[in-house]
Write a structure and sequence with these properties.
heterodimer, A: mainly beta, five-stranded antiparallel β-sheet, B: seven-stranded mixed β-sheet
Chain lengths: 112, 112
């Protein structure tokens, strides 16, 4: 049972345009959400997070939006750069379970 | 530089043999984690440890064992009981249990 879903396995975006990566979750106990970025043959790196009490968090070119009623979050990257090409994992934390659950990832390709 | 070191990067073992994957961190993080990544799947939690001499099973602990005798070290043993051990293994650590602050670069285990 996949509690964190990333339904788009891949996404291609032109350099300079906006990249929007989507994530849905099913467990209403999740109270903290994170995005990680992963390059091939490397471990993931933390990108940005958002608490369930907020609906938006911004850090430079990266913005995460949370819609609790829809159990949906999205990561916006503006403007997209070729160096952003990587796999992006959505993750969710539940204080009750005390663990982080990951989606399967979305591979972003930014075309120069 | 602080970080997580996983060794070796690539590991080959014969079926039926136990193998231990190393994970060392110098970040002074209390919590450490082991994840497994398979193609088309997200990161799945194997074991985690919030403090020295204590650890808990994750979602897919069967066939694995861990120890946490030192804060810096969290080795993972893949036993012969693990039915599908070939995978990419990632070690992580964190200060805040709501997220994973750092990942190692991973060990790719191939069992032949």
């Amino acid at each position: 049972d996949q509690q964190v879903k990333q339904n788009s396995p891949s996404l291609s975006v032109q350099e300079g345009r906006i990249s929007i990566l989507n994530c849905d979750y099913t467990n209403s106990m999740f109270d903290y959400f994170l995005w990680y970025k992963k390059y091939p043959a490397e471990g993931p790196t933390f990108l940005i997070s958002i608490s369930s009490i907020k609906d938006k968090n911004e850090d430079g070119r990266f913005t995460v939006f949370l819609n609790k009623s829809a159990k949906h979050l999205s990561l916006h990257i503006v403007p997209s750069q070729p160096g952003d090409s990587a796999v992006y994992f959505c993750a969710a934390y539940s204080g009750g379970y005390q663990k982080v659950t990951f989606g399967i990832g979305t591979k972003l390709q930014v075309i120069p | 530089d602080g970080g997580i070191t996983q060794s070796p990067k690539y590991l080959f073992r014969k079926e039926g043999q136990n193998v231990t994957l190393s994970c060392e961190q110098n970040l002074n993080h209390d919590a450490m984690y082991w994840y497994r990544q398979d193609p088309g799947q997200g990161l799945r939690l194997i074991y985690y440890s919030q403090i020295v001499n204590d650890f808990q099973k994750g979602d897919i602990a069967e066939g694995y064992s861990v120890s946490r005798e030192k804060k810096e070290s969290f080795p993972l043993t893949v036993t012969s009981a693990q039915k599908n051990p070939t995978a990419f293994y990632l070690c992580a650590s964190s200060i805040d249990p709501r997220g994973l602050d750092a990942f190692g670069s991973g060990t790719r285990l191939t069992v032949v």
